[in-house]
Design brief:
Number of strands: 22
Distance between the termini: 6 Å
Structural class: alpha/beta
Number of helices: 14
Length: 591
């Protein structure tokens, strides 16, 4: 790339490089690196002319300073050192410290040249969160009863998403820079499905998890849990009662006080890094599948005092099939389903905080000064996004790298995604105008899960495009290094190479709601030999691998969250991916 400066190997030059990395980090923390808000704004200049006067004065919140960077490479606190693994071979598995996952070299797109370890220089480093699914488990619209047909439709650990996410924040705060290069981490990007039920309550919890604050993961009755886990129904794990339910028959424990602990106040320190946000289908659509034009009855039912907890197998299958096959994008069929089962509903405490939030609400929450944390202001979004009604933007990661956050949710309904023509044209323009910078693209959906091209009700003339079409666009631009996403709850790394010789890596990371509960560090380095390497390193939360059933503290619940997820009926161990999808070095030819 014409703007990529070569760095000599002298000690003096290395010192200047470290200062430059630190300067870029200051700019990122001050929110001085925004490019555009999804409406074609011009690129802001980089360097000292772009930084506001306050940039050098940006404070680091007390108690949230990152440890001093260690000599690289390091493995502590990553899955290179250890991964949670079962200590017993049958029944309910208790977890403990397991062997780490080795780093795998992938040369699918370019050959790795010897000696690169001594030549390489850092371009950027960041952390990806994805699919946190912070969950109001007492929400009246939830579909737990589909478990009567599909045992994975409800997870025994769902009440612990908030302490689990806070523990992930604590892990990032303890990292000693990037594991391979030792360079400072620039930011955290969360690639969607930050919430689960598109509820205001969950959006508030997400913002506080990321930026810091006190969270009470409870709605309805302020003193008591009201949901399927104290229903007495054997279909669900009745953790705090003596009911012999389906999950206890599999070895799940009886934990007196579990539900009271699950709705108790949790405290998040907030990330000690700037963070950015990408929207997912669960953040934009009621239940992650009904369109922005969903039947008004669903919004009314969300805040009402009735909750359906049980239906028969056949009815559960019929409802699940209608969702999977996108037969009910407006939710009118779900409305009729709920009305038909009105007499079977149980009374719960009504709560306005469970109301669905709109895309404008999502943007305004990110722009709220109460949730700024260490910035940047808006976490990528701006007032221009609010005015234009868009949820995509570009930002500068470092002098040589830009980030582009896409909105791949389809407002027409269904959980799989696509991208509109207007946004696709903006993406092309942004890549073309920044051809002298490397680019990392972020989205919620993967290429293969972008097959839903239902028209957007608010913009019916804006044709929707598939993931395959997006790959074609990205392959037209030699500066694209990576496309980072989530959605499928599985680790997967896919090479993309075009006939024109351009190539990039698609990096898909497992969720933080299904085991193995992972996030991913990504490092970009110039090997100074005509190649670029992308290092990916997976991390777990900071909670210990071993659990103590008597420990219902915030940390104890975070550890239990992981162990319950491992044992959840129907949980797939394949979500961890193959070794080639986990800790890797991904090599690319330098354009």
């Amino acid at each position: 790339m014409s703007r990529i400066r070569s760095v000599a190997t002298s000690a003096a030059h290395k010192g200047r490089e470290a200062l430059e990395i630190n300067r870029r980090t200051v700019l990122a923390a001050a929110g001085a690196v925004s490019l555009s808000a999804g409406i074609g704004y011009a690129l802001r200049p980089t360097g000292s002319e772009a930084a506001p006067a306050a940039a050098e004065e940006q404070p680091v919140a007390e108690g949230r300073k990152a440890p001093a960077a260690a000599l690289a490479p390091y493995t502590k606190g990553t899955t290179l050192a250890s991964v949670a693994a079962p200590r017993n071979s049958s029944g309910y598995r208790r977890l403990g410290d397991g062997a780490g996952w080795s780093r795998v070299l992938r040369s699918d797109l370019a050959a790795a040249k010897s000696g690169r370890e001594s030549r390489r220089t850092a371009l950027a480093a960041f952390v990806q969160f994805t699919d946190l699914h912070l969950m109001d488990v007492q929400h009246p619209l939830r579909l737990e009863y589909v478990r009567a047909h599909d045992r994975h439709a409800w997870r025994p650990h769902e009440a612990l998403t908030v302490p689990g996410a806070v523990s992930l924040v604590e892990r990032v705060n303890a990292l000693r820079g990037a594991p391979v290069t030792g360079s400072p981490l620039h930011f955290v990007m969360t690639t969607g499905d930050n919430t689960d039920n598109n509820a205001h309550s969950e959006l508030e919890w997400f913002m506080k998890v990321m930026s810091g604050g006190r969270i009470t993961p409870n709605t309805g009755d302020p003193h008591h849990y009201e949901g399927v886990q104290n229903s007495g129904m054997k279909l669900y794990w009745q953790a705090s009662s003596t009911v012999r339910d389906q999950d206890k028959a599999l070895g799940f424990p009886h934990l007196a006080g579990y539900l009271a602990a699950a709705i108790r106040e949790v405290r998040s320190p907030g990330l000690n890094l700037p963070w950015y946000s990408t929207v997912g289908n669960h953040d934009a659509l009621p239940l992650g599948c009904y369109g922005s034009h969903a039947d008004p009855y669903l919004a009314e039912a969300a805040v009402a005092g009735k909750k359906l907890m049980s239906v028969g197998d056949a009815e559960a299958k019929k409802l699940q099939d209608s969702i999977r096959n996108a037969q009910d994008p407006k939710g009118s069929g779900y409305r009729d389903f709920l009305k038909a089962h009105a007499r079977s509903m149980r009374s719960v405490t009504a709560d306005e905080k469970r109301a669905p939030y709109t895309s404008a609400d999502y943007l305004k929450a990110h722009l709220d000064p109460a949730y700024q944390g260490l910035g940047p202001v808006g976490h990528g979004y701006s007032s221009a996004n609010v005015a234009a009604g868009t949820q995509y933007y570009a930002f500068r990661i470092s002098d040589d790298v830009i980030g582009i956050s896409l909105d791949t949710t389809d407002a027409g309904g269904h959980y799989d995604g696509s991208i509109g023509s207007v946004q696709l044209a903006w993406l092309e323009k942004t890549l073309r105008e920044n051809k002298d910078s490397y680019a990392v693209v972020f989205s919620h959906h993967t290429g293969k899960s972008m097959t839903n091209t239902r028209p957007d009700p608010a913009h019916p003339s804006d044709r929707r495009h598939t993931g395959a079409e997006l790959v074609t666009v990205l392959n037209r631009h030699a500066n694209v290094l990576a496309w980072v996403n989530g959605h499928i709850h599985r680790n997967l790394i896919t090479p993309h190479k075009a006939s024109n010789g351009n190539s990039f890596w698609e990096i898909t990371t497992a969720s933080h709601v299904d085991y193995p509960h992972l996030a991913r560090i990504v490092e970009l380095v110039d090997n100074k030999d005509g190649t670029i390497s992308l290092f990916t390193t997976l991390i777990e939360s900071a909670a210990p691998h071993r659990t103590d059933f008597a420990d219902l503290s915030q940390t104890g619940l975070a550890a239990l969250y992981r162990e319950l997820a491992f044992n959840a009926p129907g949980a797939s161990k394949a979500l961890a991916g193959d070794p080639t999808d986990r800790n890797t070095e991904l090599v690319l030819k330098k354009a």
